[in-house]
Amino acid sequence: MTLNLDIKEFLANSWQKKPCLIKQGFTAFSDLISPEILAGLAMEEGADSRIVQTNTDTESGWLVTHGPFEEYDSFGESDWTLLVQSVNEWVPEVGKLLQPFRFLPDWRLDDVMVSFSCENGGVGPHVDQYDVFIIQGAGKRRWRVGERQRLQQSQPTEDLCLVNNDFSVLIDEELESGDVLYIPAGCPHDGIALEPSLNYSVGFRAPSQAELLWQLGDSAMANDVLTKRYTDPDSSDLSPSYDITAPQLDAMKSLLIEAIQSDDANDIIARLLSQSKRPLVEPELPVTAEQIPAMLEQSNAFIERAPGARLLRLDNDSFYLNGERLDVPEPAQQAAIQLAEMHGSCGVSELNETFLIAESQALLADVINLGGYYFFVEEAPE
Q1: Helix (H) or strand (E) holding 64
Q2: CA end-to-end span of the chain
Q3: How far is CA 344 from CA 94, 117, 129, 370, 374, in A?
Q4: What is the DSSP letter of 232?
């Protein structure tokens, strides 16, 4: 899949700055999932799904129902939207939609949410705290999008936060199949289906300072690092005992800054960013490095990256997968890079020559055991 986009111009003028509409961002776009398959997925216990209804008999006029669902007839034929998170981790075809957006950091990716809306379906005017590309599939949908502005929000029903007043509109367009709408975090938007429609939302997380500090501290405590303690600054100031003095506050902030700038913090942040959104499935029996050569010699053998797995590099030589720092000696660096660049499957014949050495084979065993990659043999047709 090719995204028709001037990436340099987009990054310079739109990314995290202002919304933009990319007409026919995907030429001759074909849906990657049917409404029926999406509805079936929303019946699964492990899927994160919900239906948002408007024009209901409730006092607010809105209703949110969480899956798994057993039937859909009771929702009628209009005024509702089914949303399913992380469809890329369930349906490999949907996962292919990630590749065109790999000009952005892998660690920023949250998931691909897919929604199906009946006529007049929508989730109301709202603001998201992540960057998102919305790809229009089947059907048509009218989108109104504004730049960041002061807005009041309220919660008309549980799990639904909407913008109270109308917002100043920058984009007001009907999207057709293949159109791509980019909306930065914090920009209000409202989409209403003009006919039964499918939408694919490729979301990129934008964590807040509070979220990062909380995760950093929680992980540091669990791993017994960043243990340096506060000490009072030298001072002859005899302030009242109930005062927090400026030197004390400066000393506390300096302690935090020192922690954040440390190598331990770098390691923790890389571990956090490499964690998958959902648990990865590890093999029933561990794979050893000694088993790898025989696995790579099999005809029709493939290595595939698990949906949702993040293999990240820090400082050009440290690699992280699913919260773990990998042992990647210099001879195996190129093998690690090929694995990091891989999305979907790769035939073993396409692996570079470094996979012939023991260090790279040990690395491959490690990433398989962590659930980030798996090995399979495709049966030859009879």
Answers
A1: strand 62-66
A2: 30
A3: 11, 29, 28, 17, 11
A4: P
Low-confidence spans in the chain with pLDDT less than 70: 380-382
Structural domain including 248 reads 211-274
H or E segment and range at residue 368: helix 358-369
Shared domain check, 240 and 91: no
Do residue 225 and residue 185 come from a single domain?
A: no
The whole model's pTM is what?
A: 0.90
Tokens representing 108 are 């920023």
Q: Is the residue at 1 inside a domain?
A: no
**pLDDT the model gives residue 380:** 59
Token pair listed for 53: 């209804």
Q: Are 318 and 355 in contact (CB under 8 A)?
A: no
| Widest CA span in the chain | 89
Q: Examine the domain organization and report whether 53 and 74 are in the same domain.
A: yes
Distance CA(308)–CA(278), nearest Å, equals 7
Alpha helices in 124-276 (DSSP H): 209-223, 246-260, 263-274
* One domain for residues 216 and 160: no
Residue 141, number of CB atoms within 10 A of its CB = 25
Residue 72 contacts residue 88 (beta carbons within 8 Å): no
Distances (CA, A) of 174 to 117, 141, 183: 15, 6, 15
CATH number of the CATH domain containing 189: 2.60.120.650
CA-based nearest residue to 133, from 146, 149, 118, 114: 114
Q: Are residues 179 and 31 in the same domain?
A: yes
Q: Is the dihedral of CA 355, 361, 365, 370 positive or negative?
A: negative
With 0-12 / 13-18 / 19 or more C-beta atoms within 10 angstroms meaning exposed / middle / buried, residue 78 is middle
d(CA 52, CA 116): 11
Pair (299, 238) in one structural domain: no
The residue among 150, 172, 205 that closes a domain is 205
**198-241, pLDDT tens digit by residue?**
999 999 988 899 999 999 999 999 999 999 999 999 877 788 88
How remote is the C-alpha of 111 from its chain's centroid? 4
How many helices (H) does the chain have, and how many strands (E)?
9, 20
Quote the tokens at residue 5.
């986009």
Question: In the sheet where 324-326 sits, what is the strand order?
Answer: 311-314, 318-321, 324-326
